[in-house]
Amino acid sequence: MVKPSPVLKERLEAEFAKAVISAKSYVENPQRLQSLFEEAARQAASMPKEPFAETWPYFQTMLRLIRAYSEAKYRDVPESTLVVIIAAIIYIVNPLDVIPDALPALGYLDDATVLALAVRRARQALDDFMIWETAA
Q: Percentage of residues in the chain with pLDDT exceeding 90?
């Protein structure tokens, strides 16, 4: 993955902060969260995996976690961590983010950077969810 410039990183952090604010409204709204899951899953099916490198499996785990949460099957995740996960998904599904996804080679750089940031913040909760999945 290409490292973003400091200016791009600053813009990404500002945009991600906006997504976090929006994400809070999804936590208590299972239908809205389910709709977000469906849109993200639809987009993920056609997204290139290369820009995401090792975070792609965690992206898939995030999708499964928000689906399980929206269906009230899994709730053992701190709300602050859930908000980070939802914010990352919101950012990724937004086609008009810092670098538009339609730009060849660069379009998913910002999405991959935001996903990596969210994975760093939520890795333990995602690992715990995967353990729950295998035990269920």
A: 57
For the beta carbon of residue 71, count every other beta carbon within 10 angstroms.
Answer: 12
> Residue 83 has which token pair?
């908000």
Q: Which of 71, 55, 67 is nearest to 122 (CA)?
A: 55
* Tokens found for residue 69: 């949460």
Q: Are 16 and 111 in contact (CB under 8 A)?
A: no
Q: How far apart are CA 30 and CA 71, in angstroms?
A: 7
The Cα 88–Cα 60 span in angstroms is 12
The one-letter amino acid code at 28 reads E
The pTM of the full predicted model, rounded to 2 decimals, is: 0.88
